[in-house]
Amino acid sequence: MGKLNRYIGRTVTGAILLVLMVIVGLDLLSELVDGLKEIRGDYTFVSVLKYVAMIAPGSFYDYLPFAALVGCLSGLGSLASSSELIVMRAAGVSTWQLLAAVIKPTLVLTLVGLCVAEFVAPVSQQIAESQRAVALQKTADIHSRHGMWHREGQQFMHFNAVQPNGVLFGVSIFSFDDDRRLETNTFAERAYFIDGHWTLEDAKVVSLTDKGATQMHVQQMDWDSGLSPDLLNILVLDPQDLSISGLWRYAHYLKKQGLNAGDYELAFWNKLLQPLTIMGMVLVAISFIFGPLRNVTMGFRIFVGVMVGIVFRTAQDILGPSSMVYGFDPIYASVAPIVVCYLAGIYMLSRRA
Fold first, then answer.
1. Do residues 218 and 263 both lie within one domain?
2. Full residue range of the structural domain in which residue 107 is found
3. Most buried one in 293, 298, 313, 329, CB count within 10 A?
4. Which run of H or of E encompasses 187?
5. Are residues 127 and 175 in the same domain?
6. pLDDT, tens digit, for every residue of 312-331?
């Protein structure tokens, strides 16, 4: 049984990696085409290539459930087409033993992907976004398209670029009073974090009163903020690009500020439960191979896998925003499609076992 497990594992793992390579390659090619439109100044073609290469680890984990589904369908489908699965069953190997043989290598890939998503992808993504923003902000106006907004109490902030070492470029700070009237508008070319506090460099401060506006230029000034370089490294990324621990920390920070953390909580549960998603996809793929897709062509199996993956992703995309609109916990939006996958897979397998 050990040799059989290794043979099935090699077949399924090779198919998953091949599908993953194709999907990630297409995604990175799309990013490369989009990046070519932004080439100007210090942001060159080489910079675009570096950016695309550094966001690759994030794509690896994002597309792993989809690749697991299609890869298992194609890998096991090839064994079914050559009647190898029939021979295995005739030799006394049960459906559940075959299921275990497929899940073991998939679980290894899942653990590797989880490590990449937690320790590699957020760091490389943050560096990529930072380098691109710094290069583009030199040729941008006051507010760069790749900048980010943040709110802290009565202050709204915009940063053109954020570097991992606690340096900000193009800092705009809008301070409002209790009646939501703008009191001051501060713009600094640069800000840095030293000894637990922020310092603004080359700052222009515009104060607004009933008598009019006054402008003041300051070479250096202190800036009190609850933001730290660690939090800014989280802020610079979209929720789906953050690590699980980073999502948890920033969601709690937003709650302390009295802000809505729904997007980050949803992304947290989606990432935390992704291993269960991958196993659910594998279960569905195996149930298809032993059920309705046993005697069909390889092309049709791949087509069904793509359609099931699209339906699953669409369900997640619909339920996620719905949780924030209707006020139910984001964990239910993440769990519901996974539960459906497990129920459907177990039901189809129980009929064939």
1. no
2. 2-136+258-352
3. 293
4. strand 182-194
5. no
6. 989 988 998 898 888 888 99
